[in-house]
Structure formats: structure tokens, C-alpha cells
Amino acid sequence: MVETLVIDIPQTFPPVAEGIILLLMLGPTSPIGINLAYTFYALVIAKVFIAGPFVVSFVSRKFREIMKSGMNLTARSLGADPFQVFTTIYLPLSVNEIAAGAAMCWARAMGELGGSLIFAGVIVGQTETIPTFVATSSQTLLIPSLAASILVTTASALALFSFKRLMAKGE
């Protein structure tokens, strides 16, 4: 149930809907009294909320695999405390998944538009990103928009290839 809430729903929700939810929860009408809308923080929160589940998904799968192997229980039975188990078993065995999840997260965040546009807006020099530039400028600045799209696509493709390479090394 928790995994569905933390991983599956954010990965499948439309980013525009996530932007509206963030705007309602952390915007001018926030029920908790925090207004981060249309700030750099809003941009970061939107991107992490939308792309972060990729990291959690990769790492949680590896953690479950480690738990099934029983290595964590063996370490605990030999006197290791939970922090030692985490730092000497879970982290070293999960390095590839952490890196791969981070690469996928970064690639997804690079192209994220909907949530950022709704929650952070497009404020030049503060919350404007390449995808928001392309979305707002493609009608009038076609060549710069195309160049920006190529840049984002290339960066995302490099992240994907890095991810694939890391996963191949881990096998």
C-alpha cells in the first residue's frame, strides 16, 4: 500500500494533476499555511515529486532482494546494529541501483513540464526551465526552441545510456 502511494501513483499520475495538487497543498491557499508557489523551491519540489519515485523504485527492489537473501538478518545476529547493516550491506550492494535510479530520475526531471508549469510558473531567471522555455517560445522562437529541445533530448539520452551501462555492469 505504501509502495503504491510513494512509487506507483506519482509515476502514473499526469504531471499537470500533480502540479495542481502541489499548488493546492503548498500554494496561496495552502491548508498548512506554506506558500511556495512560483518560486525556485516550487520548481525543485515539483521535479522531485514527479521524478523521484524512479530512484525509490529501483532502490526498494534491491532492498527487497537483499532482505530475501537474509544477509541483513545474518549481520544483525552477529551483532551489527541497524545503521551498520544499512551502511555495510544495503548501501554497498545497492550502488548500481541508486546510480541507475538517479540517472532515470534526472532524465525524467529534465523533460518535466506539467507540474513545474502549474506549481512554479515561468519566471525568467528563477523558475524557467528548458521545457517551459520550449513550451512558451516555440511559436515565436522556433530555432532556439528546437535547439533547446535537442539539448534536453541529448542530455536525457545520455542519462539513459549511462543507466543501461550501469545496469549491465551490475549483472
What does this structure look like?
- The chain has 171 residues and is mainly α.
- The chain has ten helices and no strands.
- Helix 4 runs antiparallel to helix 7.
- It starts with a helix and ends with a helix.
- The mean pLDDT is 89.
Write a brief structural summary.
The chain has 171 residues and is an all-alpha fold. It contains ten helices and no strands. The chain has helices at 2-12, 15-26, 40-51, 53-69, 71-77, 82-93, 95-111, 114-119, 130-137, 142-170.
Strand elements, count: 0
Low-pLDDT runs of 5+ residues are none
Strand content: under 5%
**Overall mean pLDDT score?**
89
Q: State the major sheet.
A: none
Terminus-to-terminus distance: 29 Å
- Number of helical stretches of at least 4 residues: 10
- Helix and strand sequence: HHHHHHHHHH
Q: What is the overall shape? A: globular
**Derived structural class:** mainly alpha
Q: What is the percent of helical residues?
A: over 70%
Output the radius of gyration.
19 Å
What would the keywords be for this entry?
171 residues; mainly alpha; 77% helix
Draw up the topology in text:
Elements: H1 2-12, H2 15-26, H3 40-51, H4 53-69, H5 71-77, H6 82-93, H7 95-111, H8 114-119, H9 130-137, H10 142-170
Helix pairs in contact: 1-4, 2-3, 3-7, 4-7, 5-6, 7-10, 9-10
